[in-house]
Structures
1.
Amino acid sequence: MPTALYGKDILHVKDLKLEQVSLILETAGRYESVLAQGGSLTNMTGQVLATLFFEPSTQTRLTFETAMLKMGGHVVSVTDAKTSNLDVKGEKLYDTGRMISAYASLAVIRHRAEGSAQELAEGASVPVVNGGDGAGQHPTQALMDVFTIKKERGRLNNLTITLVGDLKNGRTVHSLSWLLGKYGPRFYFVSPPELKMPAEITASLLEDGIEVFETADISEAAAKSDVLYMTRVQKERFADIEEYERLKDAYVVNAGFIRKCKHGITIMHPLPRLGEIAREVDAYEGAAYFRQTANGLPVRMAVIALLTGRE
Amino acid sequence: MPTALYGKDILHVKDLKLEQVSLILETAGRYESVLAQGGSLTNMTGQVLATLFFEPSTQTRLTFETAMLKMGGHVVSVTDAKTSNLDVKGEKLYDTGRMISAYASLAVIRHRAEGSAQELAEGASVPVVNGGDGAGQHPTQALMDVFTIKKERGRLNNLTITLVGDLKNGRTVHSLSWLLGKYGPRFYFVSPPELKMPAEITASLLEDGIEVFETADISEAAAKSDVLYMTRVQKERFADIEEYERLKDAYVVNAGFIRKCKHGITIMHPLPRLGEIAREVDAYEGAAYFRQTANGLPVRMAVIALLTGRE
Amino acid sequence: MPTALYGKDILHVKDLKLEQVSLILETAGRYESVLAQGGSLTNMTGQVLATLFFEPSTQTRLTFETAMLKMGGHVVSVTDAKTSNLDVKGEKLYDTGRMISAYASLAVIRHRAEGSAQELAEGASVPVVNGGDGAGQHPTQALMDVFTIKKERGRLNNLTITLVGDLKNGRTVHSLSWLLGKYGPRFYFVSPPELKMPAEITASLLEDGIEVFETADISEAAAKSDVLYMTRVQKERFADIEEYERLKDAYVVNAGFIRKCKHGITIMHPLPRLGEIAREVDAYEGAAYFRQTANGLPVRMAVIALLTGRE
């Protein structure tokens, strides 16, 4: 079923069925091998990817663009958040979707407003990928995280996974908990009370029979987890700067902390980090965050190729 | 005469002779067929287009860039309006023109100041295309509009065409009225009195024997026109925000309005729209604005190829 | 020794040995011939250059990007100085270096902070080129300046060279004086007392036996020099705007001034100029500044190819 994703949008990880996720992971694995062997791809020749980034980003945009270029495709890009005349209201994003469909084969959008990717997709006749919408979703980050966990741990099922940090506002952890939930994990959600995972996400996981432990204490979770997923507390999500200053250093992983974790624990982070993981941890063999970011390339190649039917 | 445009600048539609316009339209038609048949072009291989956008834009820049890429060429781009060290004075644009000529085969510029494209062209030894200079000119928009009218109506002569909105500040309608004037149209210019077409444009058209009706009332014009060209009232052109708020909703096309228009009327808009055309109009078969935006690609391909002698 | 630069960073001209500079100049000369003959290069096929520009620039970034594209490579770019989430602290640049190494073959960075290129390079496993860090270094500008002097004067040794303008804050003249110092020049450093060349640079040159004359008077220097290197007084380096206004017009080259210079003097400028060189000077055959900017392309092609071992 190689075209199971052909023509679809990826706006929310909930849109993906388990076999579609598997197809993406398997395709990404194949592309990773081609790249590792120095091979080249031409499956996107003559096609155009539009990257529409109305909010700061670098890694997401640059890896999507590299993914397209490495398959022989072209890229056009909007990054000028402040001055673009596309950043104001939903109706314009609908029109933008209609307009870019005239020359682009697919589009990736990042935008401050939740629902913006959906609005673009309504206008577009080509596939749209949500590259992060406000505190909402960031599905390709979740896909590369799952790809990483599978590579690092050898499996996706029967794992204990801890998500740490700003679970209220972090779109990365929202997308990831939805997606990992499909594989029957045991979850620890570690955050200050003010930054807990939204109740609707937790409730939905519990309904699906997933074990979820919510706590402000990282110790027990770290001692029992196979994967520790750190996130930064994002300043731009806070109205009150004092609240930000108080909460940002609540959880920090350093060499001493690693010694108290479960042996061989995998440390992940969507990067860039602020101070949540000390640089001394980089040398720890379970520190997977730089491998995790590198996995963005094959996963986004797979997403581009599968959505456009050019895998 | 395939190289009739080779080495030239396109700064103002007035620079174009009728046979040069015909050559562009004919070449664009040919490129459109190649694209529609899934063919590929390589005529710009190894060449570089510089897009210098010192004012917000997306469609103009992205379609120029796609046009270049689809012909096998490369693109380098400046879009960072605020922070670029090129945005201050004309003398610098002269130097910029000299400098980019060392590596680019042609340049497209958008800039807030009228005359900026001219200044760049004075320094450049390669062709320069004006991608919009303040309230001045936007010649490739006019070319794709004329290409659209010819496709939608089957001809360019003997048409009644209404231009609606901010005719004082809208560079799109300035370029378009100059260009359409070559084909002997009957014009209705519909605007509030404060936003009338500049007198020099109207006078020049009348001098050439063109019928021009200026009015604030859209009804008669709509009932008699083959083409209704809507424009948005651009907030950024107003010093007084209250005047903007009062004028922006003066003319709105919706389904009820269409029923009072001449049967089969073609509705155009340079996009993005604000609220001038209700989304319900999108389903009307004479709603040509999304086809119009799509026509930007073959027309800009033709312009790039003809100016560089690589058609 | 064709791979003598393979895998290295170019952060400071001091890092370059004389034979490495010679290799770059010789390689650039070869690429220049290929381009002049309309030939094409494919040595960077499938490779990606990341241009990370956190401070305004156009020529440096656009010539690096063109250089990469003209050798068959790809480019991904960050230019969004204000809104990028990478512009804040050194630790993030370290992480950025780690991250981009997963998909880019090399990176060029421009950043307001001295030492920023060094920080990026510490994280990166791929070569990093300093494209200008604050008032620090800009080594590829110095390389293209030396390449220009060699072409214009036929030699690099035994020349009298005058550097004029803001010698305190100008990174271009810092890099250039270090690099030219290797060829045993006689230097005139002409500036207002407030904007003198940093003492550490002058001291180091004197230590190496170079003749250095520091003066506020341009007349004697101009009468005795083979090369007059003008720079602009950069507004963005001044905290006090009044001091800027007073100093910016201290030295201006016009046609009358040229008549008082040594016969055949070569006039250079890193561009863009503000008012330091009148446009009437452009017609003087020794006005080399536009040829100088054009030399950026082959020199940067050479740097890219040599650092990545793909020359």
Note: The radius of gyration of chain A is 19 Å.
2.
Amino acid sequence: MKKIIKDRGAVYFNEGSWATLSNILENLCPSKVFVLTDTNTKTHCLELFLKNVPFNIVPEVLTISAGERHKTISTSVALWSELSEKGADRRSLLINLGGGVVTDLGGFVASSFKRGIEFINIPTSLLAMVDASIGGKNGVDLGILKNQIGVIRNPKCVIIDSTFLETLPEEQVISGYAEILKHGLIHSESYWNAASRFDIKNKVETDALIWGSVEIKNEVITEDPNEHGRRKTLNYGHTLGHAIESYLLEHSNKEALLHGEAIAIGMILATYISSEENAFPKSKLEIVTQTILRSFPKVTFSDIDIAAIIKLLIYDKKNDNGKVHFVLLSDFGSHTMNNEISNSTIKKAFEYYKNF
Amino acid sequence: MKKIIKDRGAVYFNEGSWATLSNILENLCPSKVFVLTDTNTKTHCLELFLKNVPFNIVPEVLTISAGERHKTISTSVALWSELSEKGADRRSLLINLGGGVVTDLGGFVASSFKRGIEFINIPTSLLAMVDASIGGKNGVDLGILKNQIGVIRNPKCVIIDSTFLETLPEEQVISGYAEILKHGLIHSESYWNAASRFDIKNKVETDALIWGSVEIKNEVITEDPNEHGRRKTLNYGHTLGHAIESYLLEHSNKEALLHGEAIAIGMILATYISSEENAFPKSKLEIVTQTILRSFPKVTFSDIDIAAIIKLLIYDKKNDNGKVHFVLLSDFGSHTMNNEISNSTIKKAFEYYKNF
């Protein structure tokens, strides 16, 4: 078992982690246990979970519809009501079993139910394993604006069992891969190179990348839990990526992208801008773009799309005083913060992406 | 100026506190300032506030409908949307100018907007001055269940100016007085005696009681911020009081009570139960009941009402594992925690209240 121990939010990985969870449950002695799933994880992951964890009392299973469009306040209200009706009290426990939507939403629901009950994250998607379930950020979308409502509060612990990935459709695996590539970009060229060789069929290497990414994320958030500085690097590619994701989600005539697919585009754009404004080497930009496009679909944006996406940027949580600030790189693992970028530079980045 | 200084949640009282607020605003340098009012405080309190605080940029005023029935998630959603539309970012500040509904709801809205922006409480009702605005508890109701959704997070500071009380209808003043009496019950016979002499026309004594209550509440929550022990005494009378308040709010054919009016009844019931189960002296019970009934209306409850109120108790946040636990007193300032009380004892308490 690999593990990172902290006061709250300890992360346990693979062998031995289920036994550890059983111990934690025994010590915590919750009055009731609720397991939050979505329609997918209820079908594909619940059985494995129940097989691995002994419960004195059968836990209550709560189920939401799968998909980002259900990560809303109204889903939260339905869950708060269900928890109330089923007799949840302050000593109840919520276990979030699912991908990023389940851990983000479940974390918020638990953190604000009766001013906070304990919760545990069991990520079942690659994206949730390497990113969403770690670090205590939780929240829901407000209309098309992503993660506008939420708090920062760590789970009691995080249990990662990479065998859950076998239940995942390929495009969902690839979506999580975007965050591993991001860790390469913000951390080091060596981790980027390791990430470039990602192959889901190679379990040993995939496990190494999952744990590598957990360690990188943990290092960053331990240094800067409240995002005053270095934690902002975890948003690399997300400023434009979120705007792209929101825009496509809002327009039902356009095909929505998975979170990682949108972030992949955002990272190409941010790396282009880094090369223009921050001396990121052009040759490495080439490699980054090639590597990303090898795994992620290329999307066509019209001028109208691009203008609308730029307009959405002002709602980004990382904007400040009406100005949109980007994290940029000068090389793998070397960043500068709070770069103000003009709209024309953003348009040139879309142009570069289109013509690549 | 009287003041209690802490990292967060510092409280400033009367003379000099507006000047202190101006300094705090200058140091904080928020990107935008929003002032949350309700329809009453916008009319009666906003002008005094704006006269006392210089702003470089005119703050945006947000207004909600007055009254407990608007302390909901849907009001929160409307405010989150308005904040987004008006360009609030993470460095924006929300100033809550109002009674307990405004400070409870505004604190929750700020704490969960973009994972937490700064907020300042400026209580304008007696209840908010001595109780709601202090201690970092915030939240909204879920259906008829009071404060089910919320978090604990302190405001940047609390500014109390007791001249706001001159704008308050008498029954609203009396509602806040219930919490001052509660502080007497849980703190000491001497503070109870001082509280018994409350007279809103005597400004000097009223100010002394406001500050006395702020100090008592501050002492309790400093010792036990997360309500593992002594903080539970602040719920004295609230277990039944909340259930009574919720029940009457739910039944539109019955006259709703103000929070303090419901808590006043809850305190008589809890003190009767204390005398039955916890040796609270009968002679002092007599005094407590007389004192409370001198200021608060007596309400008639049918057997059906009482049964429904008892049923609501299981949703109380302080219940644990399906059992309702009361804080009881053995004397002024001496409490015991987690007393499990039978329904028949609760019925006898209502009987005592009815026949007094």
Note: DSSP finds 14 helices and eleven strands in chain B.
